[in-house]
Amino acid sequence: MHEWIRCEADETAIAAGCKFDLAAAVRVRNFCKEFLRHSKGQWAGKPFELLDWEWFDVIGPLFGWKRADGTRRFRQAYIEIPKKNGKSSLMSAVELYLLVGDDEQGAEVYTAAADRDQAGIVYDEAARMVDASPELAKHLQVIRSTKRIIYPRSNSVLRALSADVPTKEGLNASAVIFDELHAQRGRELWDTLYYAGIARRQPLLISITTAGYDRQSICYEQRGYAEQVRDGLIEDMSFLPVIYRAGEDDDWTDPAVWIRANPSLGAMLDLEEFHHACNEAKVSPRKENTFKRYRLNIWTEQDVRWLSIDAWNACDKPLDIESLKGRECWAGLDLSTKVDLSALVLAFPLEGREFALVPFLWIPHDNAHNREKRDRVPYLQWARDGFLALTEGNVIDYEAIEAKICELAGQYQIREIAFDPWNAQATANRLANEGLNMVEFRQGFVSMSGPTKDFEALVLSRRLIHGGHPVLKWNAGNVAVQEDAAGNIKPNKKKSTERIDGIVAAIMATGRAMISTEDNSGSVYEERGLLTL
Questions:
Q1: Run of H or E residues at 179
Q2: Do residues 217 and 263 share a domain?
Q3: Is 76 helix (H, G, I), strand (E, B) or coil?
Q4: How far apart are CA 412 and CA 407, in angstroms?
Q5: Contact, 458 vs 311, CB < 8 A?
Q6: Is residue 260 within 8 Å of 37, Cβ to Cβ?
Q7: pLDDT tens digits for 356-400?
Q8: Would residue 334 be called left, alpha or beta, if left means φ above 0 and alpha means ψ between -120 and 50 degrees?
Q9: Considering its fold, how many domains does the chain have in total?
Q10: In what order do the strands lie in the sheet with 156-162?
Q11: Cα–Cα distance measured from residue 183 to residue 527, given in angstroms and rounded to the nearest whole number
Q12: What is d(CA 115, CA 277) in angstroms, rounded to the nearest whole number?
């Protein structure tokens, strides 16, 4: 009993009538070992025997601690741990036990995630465990088409659920497992499922996640609460915090730090592979960021770090836009979908191989208020200050953008306008008919990698002048880059925290400007066949 009393919250729980029921905890451990099998990798086909951390930090406390009335003490758990420590398999085992062994008639067990694919990870592992267990397979019906597992004997169901499922109201959840909570962009799914078990006698909500990067997210909010409960700053005997991570000031290259942050290291994780990943991270800031987040569970600034905000701020030099009138420039045009931010950025070559950026940005007027709340940025104030324009209606007005571009063509010598033909071909055709030189600039690795690296070099060498434009700064702080096996990089809108359209347009503009102003005719990108003109 004493080994399960580890903190002041446990002492408080005992004073409130709670006790530790070792037999109840062992029942879950035995269920995992006797009925479940691993389905992947070197462990495939072997009994699911809990690792020490899984038993002592998760399963034991979660199912062993009971209230005076015999129900579970813990109603909520936050588990944060680096990738590849077996969290998905553990949660699959937990949800199967909650389905068949929790003594809950009409149980509704939900695996929740940001999208269908993520929600399916824990579900698919649970389904494979059922398939590999003759005993469970006799009693459970696996319906993969709707991602359900049904237990007819108790009229219970296990179901995968994601934020993109239209209807989530009316649920009566006995248990919810949120997988990769850091990926939840909004609160809707969380808020819905948080109260979905209010009518149950011992509802359980488990959040399990790797560190993220959005400090305004529901995940970071829950993580902060978990830390305060763990440290005794908040008294909540119903909340179980489990956080494995390295400290932000720890030496991330130290194997002792890796072991402390990864309780499965040596079992599911290979130490030699860790050394290899660390050596790669030492020579690449992007890989260092990824190593810290995924391997050591350190919250980073963004998904895959690219531009340092300090470096960006160092490029905030005085910029006299009026003095640029009549000068030659190159433009990048990034047209959004009809409800998002669109951007045109002009890049002006200056003396000393510097480049000045002048951005123009648009968003639909009728969506600005809602987007302001969703993106948590002051679109309306930026519009009042002249940093972006609101087009009429609830969808972007391409004609208004085209009219503005034609107006700018009368004020500046726009040599080229680079555009992505995927979503801007019609606009490009109309502008070409107005006499503007339109250049296709596709968004794949082949076209984007060189200009993206050159843009990064301009920022780091402080040869980019942006004048402190607030929307462009916001975009710069959001950018995440994606890297392929060959080391090519490109901005990734899906992985970026928020809108990055201004930076994408700036990369295209500076890329074309640098190509066109080289001393030698032609372009290294063109010579390599990297641009489709």
A1: strand 175-179
A2: no
A3: strand
A4: 9
A5: no
A6: no
A7: 999 999 999 887 888 787 777 899 999 999 999 999 888 888 999
A8: beta
A9: 3
A10: 141-143, 148-151, 156-162, 108-113, 175-179, 204-209, 76-80, 239-243
A11: 40
A12: 28
Question: Residue 104 is encoded by which pair of tokens?
Answer: 């809950």
- Is the pLDDT at 229 greater than 60? The verdict is yes
The domain of 192 spans 2-243
Instruction: Say if 35 falls within a structural domain.
Output: yes
Band of residue 522 on the pLDDT scale cut at 50, 70, 90: very low
Q: Take residue 109 and report the two structure tokens written for it.
A: 């067990």
Structure-block tokens of residue 147: 């991602």
In the numeric block, the tokens 């932000």 are attached to: 248
Mean pLDDT across the stretch 276-281?
88
| DSSP, res 335 | -
Helix (H, G, I), strand (E, B) or coil at 114: coil
Three-state secondary structure readout of 460-525: HCCCEECCCCHHHHHHHHHCCEEECCCCCEEECCCCCCCCCHHHHHHHHHHHHHHHHCCCCCCCHH
CATH number of the domain within which 152 lies: 3.40.50.300
Across-strand partners of 108? 157
pTM equals: 0.64
Residue-level pLDDT at 1: 60
Cβ-contact 514, 454 below 8 angstroms: yes
Residues forming a β-bridge with 254: none
pLDDT single digits (tens) 251-270: 999 999 999 999 999 888 88
Domain CATH number, residue 468? 3.30.420.240
CB 65 within 8 A of CB 16: no
- ∠ CA 81-84-85, rounded to 5°: 55
304, part of any domain: no
3-state secondary structure of 203: coil
